[in-house]
Design brief:
The protein has nine helices and twelve strands. With 300 residues, it is an alpha+beta fold. The protein folds into two domains: 114 residues, PAS domain (Beta-Lactamase); 159 residues, Reverse transcriptase/Diguanylate cyclase domain (Alpha-Beta Plaits), CATH 3.30.70.270. The chain has a five-stranded antiparallel beta sheet with strand order 2-1-5-4-3. A hairpin with a 4-residue loop joins β3 and β4. α6 packs across α7. The longest helix is centred in the middle third of the chain and has 29 residues. The radius of gyration is 37 Å and the shape is elongated.
């Protein structure tokens, strides 16, 4: 007994961890160190374990001390975490099956407060979430036109490269249409650049609303918009361009009223590169502008 008392004094008595021993048959605490007494009161010994730690016995914390018989030999400690609602503390729990000093089966539990660790984990989780959000914002910003929220020139170049590779490898047709807002400089000169921005935003919305989900639309530059049309031949692309032209011409734009747009259309040809395709659709648009605007021209 002297050795045991010395052990309690030198190892258990002064440490801040909550250490207690539970009788698995009755579920009552049979021993508690001073830290445990300070936490639960001087009369904690003899109380039911479940009353001192609500919910612990029913969860995977303090694993099943009533359900499992204590083996003759000590098993490895079981470990988990426990949140105490009353003290608002987090604890790391170690639990081990033992033989008590009188030879009876008992469970010894050691609870170590880990609030600082939990705060750090929470801070890291929030930091990771913030970083992921910022990375997503950067990813969107890198491929989005800030004014219209359509794809920007950089992303259009990438999408063109992808579609061109599909065309070369599998022979899948695709077409492009290039739209330009007619007499846009007059809008800026007459109503100001803010109104010009509003017109471009509304034009972008009209175009996007009348394209397929598989099409890629972006702001090519200034008042020009480029659409990439997968699985689309020249005739269907021209028909779509004329539908878009009509939608724009019959739309009432804020402040300025009616506006029109001109369209150039071209389909990818075998043997030509992307630059040649872009040059052809640009030539078609140039022709539409020179032929009186508010029209569709095709470069076949």
């Amino acid at each position: 007994m002297q050795d045991f008392d010395r052990f309690l004094l030198t190892v258990v008595y002064d440490i801040p961890n909550l250490i207690f021993v539970v009788d698995p048959e009755s579920g009552r605490i049979v021993y508690a160190n001073p830290s445990m007494h300070e936490r639960l009161g001087d009369d904690c010994v003899g109380r039911a374990f479940g009353d001192q730690f609500p919910g612990a016995g029913g969860s995977h914390c303090f694993i099943g001390y009533k359900q499992h018989a204590v083996e003759q030999e000590q098993g490895p400690p079981q470990q988990t975490e426990y949140y105490d609602d009353e003290s608002e503390n987090w604890y790391h729990v170690q639990q081990r099956q033992i033989r008590w000093i009188d030879g009876t089966a008992k469970i010894v539990c050691v609870l170590s407060e880990i609030n600082a660790l939990k705060r750090l984990q929470k801070d890291l989780t929030e930091a990771h979430a913030t970083l992921a959000f910022k990375n997503r914002e950067l990813e969107i910003s890198a491929k989005t036109d800030r004014l219209t929220s359509l794809y920007n020139r950089y992303h259009l170049d990438q999408a063109l490269q992808t579609e061109y590779q599909r065309f070369r490898r599998y022979g899948k047709p695709f077409a492009m249409l290039l739209a330009d807002c007619d007499h846009f400089k007059e809008v800026n000169d007459t109503f100001g650049h803010q109104t010009g921005d509003i017109v471009l935003i509304e034009l972008a919305r009209l175009l996007q609303a009348n394209l397929r989900a598989t099409d890629t639309l972006g702001r090519w530059g200034g008042e020009e918009f480029l659409a990439i049309l997968p699985e689309t031949g020249l005739a269907n692309a021209a028909q779509l361009a004329d539908k878009l032209r009509d939608k724009i011409a019959s739309h009432d734009f804020p402040v300025v009223g009616r506006k029109t747009a001109s369209f150039g259309v071209a389909e990818a040809r075998p043997g030509e590169d992307i630059k040649e395709l872009i040059a052809r659709v640009d030539q078609a648009l140039y022709l539409a502008k020179n032929q009186g605007r508010n029209r569709v021209e095709v470069n076949s």
